Amino acid sequence: MWSLPTLRAEAPATRFTRSAARATLAAMAAELRWYPSKVDWWVAVLLAVAPLSCLVALVATLVGGEGVLAAAGGAAFLVLVYGGLVLPVRYAVAEDAVVVRHGVVRQRIPLAEIRSVTPSRSVLSSPALSRDRLDIEFGDGLFRHALISPVDRGAFLAELAARAGLVADGARLVRPSA
């Protein structure tokens, strides 16, 4: 008959907890320089229409006395969508990746995979609140572009070039040929 060997723990086991993960993320975020998204005036108007309409509907239902629950539910849903998917929109250059944050969504683009960064006016959906964008081309596969719009474009590009080893080629940054 056989038996399993006994395992001895030489060091006390550490547990990965949500509070430890939050503390780690908070420490990382504090060390990064965040670049907020540039906001076009027409995007600001579009983003303001839904909350203002919702507020008017909520006030009207409070005055009228009917449909208050539905209006409050709509307002709560809108807050969740804006807070969870839209705002804030910001970008950072970490030691190993460009971090794109919109709402609670975070995308990391490894610096080693970035091939080029090109100015763009694309209308494609992206975590950018302006059409004055930068197109980051990276990796392989279907989703190999990210469109972002940092307010301080010059500082963002300078930091990205320094950390990722990219060089200027006219108005764009490229990975130098080996």
How would you sum up this structure in a few lines?
With 178 residues, the chain is of the alpha+beta class. It is built from 4 helices and 9 strands; from the N terminus they run αβααββββββαββ.
Q: Termini distance?
A: 60 Å
Q: Summarize the helix and strand pattern as letters.
A: HEHHEEEEEEHEE
The coarse silhouette is: elongated
Low-confidence stretches: none
Report the biggest beta sheet as strand number plus sense, adding barrel if it closes: 5 strands, antiparallel
Would you tell me the overall average pLDDT? 86
Using the coordinates above, name the CATH class.
Mainly Beta
> What quaternary form is this?
single chain
Any idea what the CATH architecture is? Roll
Number of helices: 4
Class computed from helices, strands and strand pairing: alpha+beta
Q: Estimate what percentage of residues fall within beta strands.
A: 15-25%
Share in helix: 25-40%
Number of domains: 1
- Biggest sheet strand order reads 7-6-5-9-8
Number of strands: 9
Rg (C-alpha, Å): 23 Å
Task: Provide structural commentary.
The chain has 178 residues and is an alpha+beta fold. It has a single domain, classed as PH-domain like. 39% of the residues lie in helices and 24% in strands. The chain is built from 4 helices and 9 strands; from the N terminus they run αβααββββββαββ. The protein has helices spanning 18-31, 41-64, 68-86, 153-164; strands at residues 34-36, 89-93, 97-102, 105-110, 114-120, 133-138, 145-148, 167-169, 172-174. Strands 7-6-5-9-8 form a 5-stranded antiparallel sheet, covered by helices on one side. Helix 2 (41-64) packs antiparallel against helix 3. It is elongated and about 70 Å long.
